[in-house]
Fold this protein.
Amino acid sequence: MDGPYSLMPPSGAPEGSETFARELAAFIAPYLEEHEAVFGGLWLDSIGSGRVACFAAFTDDLAPHRAALDHRVQVMAARHSVDDLEAIREDVRGFMERYDGARLREEGIDDRENRVVVGAETVEPESLRTALRERFGDLVTLRVDVFVTQLAAFDAWSLESTDDGEELTAHWLGGPGERAHRLELVEADRFVRVTVLFDRHEGAPAMSGMDMSATARLTEPLGDRVVIDATTGRQKPRYASPTAVAFDDDADWEEVEPPLPAGPISDAEMDASGLRAAELGDAVRAYVRDHTFVYGGMWTERHAGGVLLCVAFSEDARGHRAALDPAVKVLRCEYPVWELEAMQRDVVTLIEETDGATWSQATLTVSEGVIDLFASADDPRELARSIAGHFGAVVRLVPLDSPTHEPTPTAFDAYIADGDTHFLGVVWSEAAGGPALLRLDEGPDAVHVTVIESRPLPGTRPQSIEGRRAVASAHLRQALGGRAVIDATTGRTMQPLVLPDGVAG
């Protein structure tokens, strides 16, 4: 039964509740129509033990209603009649149409709360909440989709001439939950500095892969001025086509997909393809030893025709492709891994120095060249602005209502390193199951290593997993050489991990 006297069973109501709701609504509707001026709401609610009860609210003396209605109806007091709330609802629509800075998504009447409910999208929820309270008092409840203003690093730019001048467009990969993309331009004699801003829904996942763009008009023709990304401080290339972007040091660079069968292939063939990718990974790791400071990470992609090994470099990607097996997919990245690791440590330090902010996890996603920071804060919007100002789009903030993990210094058992490389790994047992990062304090005679393990808080996941071994790694500023490795948590000088065949790891 639709209309002002319809009933909807609550979530999880027992079987038969819909029939009960229809029959009860049909029974009570004539009475409510007679008392429309004082009717304040009608709803069903769970009352425990698998039972559902009906509630009807009125603004006048409740005794006559209790005497007149069936025992199945619980009579409640209401401050406002539904007619009064409908009038307020109409006023709210007009108010939201005139309000600058928010978009009305939905509005309605909450019978239980005896209020008008407004659903809106805004980047300033407190300002909207204050304005509604000043206009309507406690008659309106605001339910907000909060959007946080963030910065984005862009990949390339394009230019279009119009009757009103030249328009510059920035292009980048974004994700769901983004809106209101816009550019801010600072024009100088030799360059144009471009800042990309957008509003992201706080609940949206930190993802990318969707083509995004934003346009702004130049005050003067671009001419031979260069275009600078204000977020990263780097010069950006002109957009070549939807599938190929010309980069500074790889003018004709374009990604090439190594040949794979069209697929689908059998499980046995997929397993064999995975083993082949692992073998290629060993060869790539040996190659990367000599290219530490441009290495951007390695990962696999599973396709219908097999497993593809991918590796990224921040410079001379074309040269690295020529040097590696043709079955390896070589990509160009913005930042090498060592630089991402440094920013990972820096953003954690920033959070620790920010009042009212706590970080739970900081994970490095090399396949996207970003750091995903899971953090809670008294003012998440201000934290997002601070992070964007320091790190641009490299750090993706995932806001949390409350901490889920506790970063904890953890002792480790051994380290993995070769004296002539810049790679250092550490191993420990009985891991807490959360991600970890390394803090390195390098001196002339020793490297002090602190393992920070994100341990799940009680009620989320097991605090430890017996027998589990964990590994974390980082890049040194200079090769380890003969320096000692010291566990900063215990103060002990550690030994290298020795593999079963007696070869140092």
Observations:
- The radius of gyration is 30 Å.
- The CA atoms of residues 417 and 424 lie 5 Å apart.
